[in-house]
Amino acid sequence: MSFLKEEATIFDDEEVAAWLAFDRTVGLGIGIKRIEKLFEYFGSLKDAWKSTARELENVHSFDKELIAAFFEKRATIDPEKLLETCKKAKVNPYPYYHLDYPQLLRHISDPPIVLYVRGSLHPDHFNYSIGVVGTRKPTAYGKMVAKDFGIGLARRGVTVVSGLAVGVDALAHWGAINEGGRTIGVLACGPDVCYPSSNRLLYEKLITGEHGAVVSEFFPGTKPEPWHFPARNRIISGLARGVVVIEAGEESGALITAEISYNQGHVPFAVPGRIDNPMSAGCNRLIKQQKATLVTCVNDIMLELNWQSAPNAESAPPTVVQLFGRENEIFELVTAEPVHFDHLCYKSGMASGELSATLTMLELAGIVTRHPGDWYSRSSSLTLISSNEMP
Question: For the chain, what is the radius of gyration of the CA atoms?
Answer without folding.
Answer: 25
